[in-house]
Amino acid sequence: EIVLTQSPTTMAASPGEKVTLTCLASSSVNYMYWYQQKSSASPKLLIYYTSSLASGVPDRFSGSGSGTSYSLTISSMEAEDAAIYYCLQLTSTPLTFGSGTKLEIK
Amino acid sequence: EVQLVESGGGLVQPGRSMKLSCAASGFTFSNYGMAWVRQAPTKGLEWVATISYDGSSTYYRDSVKGRFTISRDNAKSTLYLQMNSLRSEDTATYYCTRVRNYDFDYWGQGVMVTVSS
Predict the structure, then answer these.
(1) SS3 category, A74
(2) Rounded-to-integer distance, Cα A28 and Cα A65, Å
(3) How many CB atoms lie within 10 A of CB A22?
(4) B6-38: per-residue pLDDT in tens?
(5) Could you tell me which residues come within 8 angstroms of residue B29 by beta carbon, excluding any fewer than 6 positions away?
(6) What does residue B30 show for φ and ψ, rounded to 5 degrees?
(7) For residue A4, what are the β-bridge partners?
(8) Do A19 and A73 meet the contact criterion of CB atoms below 8 Å apart?
(9) How far apart, in whole angstroms, are the C-alpha atoms of residue A55 and residue A51?
């Protein structure tokens, strides 16, 4: 099973601040996917194929990485970006999610 | 507009069975694979099972293999999850998701399953 380790576990950012979240895989994966989950809501796809923006997602979100190291970047933090962010690997079963990064607004 | 609406959750005793349903609309259901993903209270996301667009292929995580069955009725645009021999660790919100390529692009609102005596 591929284990995804997300860091930090929790962080707070000020409006306008650049934010980078990291996801490290225990084995190399082909692509990384990123989801946003706001309190009590269903997860929402943000990034697919490592760096492609899902429909309707603001372009302040971007993804990058390869092999075992991936990141999600918010170029300028907004209050509405406060949420838990999960990475997901689809390279091998069982499909696995990271444990999440909780992002708060300062 | 893509809509996925889960139903069938609730409280069930350990060892008993429960069947979840997911009614899909707003897209051609028979063209897409579908999946179930769950989230235990205050925990992260966990993939449960995936079914191909025509139902010919299914995939499960080990902890539910032999106990859960994912199925679909394309004529009714409905996805199912039959859960047998339920355990306390199956307590979670279960999300129905559409599979686009391989990722989960649309999610339902989720249905809560509580396994407790």
Answers:
(1) strand
(2) 11
(3) 16
(4) 999 999 999 999 999 999 999 999 999 999 999
(5) B72, B74, B77, B78
(6) -70, -5
(7) A25
(8) yes
(9) 13
CB distance A33 to A45 below 8 Å = yes
Residue B84: burial class (beta carbons within 10 Å; 0-12, 13-18, 19+): middle
CB B112 within 8 A of CB B9: yes
Contact B107 A88 (CB under 8 A): no
Count CA atoms within 13 Å of residue B76 on its CB side: 9
Q: What is the DSSP letter of A48?
A: E
Across chain B, what does the average pLDDT equal? 97
Which pLDDT band, with edges at 50, 70 and 90, does A71 fall under? very high
Residue type, B63: S
d(CA A50, CA A31): 5
Tell which of B68, B103, B112 to mutate to test the A interface (max A CBs under 10 Å): B103
Q: Which of A33, A42, A90 sits opposite B95 (nearest CB)?
A: A42
The answer to whether the beta carbons of residues A75 and A26 sit under 8 Å apart is no
User: Which residues make Cβ contacts (< 8 Å) with residue B103, sequence separation at least 6?
Assistant: A33, A45, A48, A88, A90
Tokens encoding B30: 């028979």
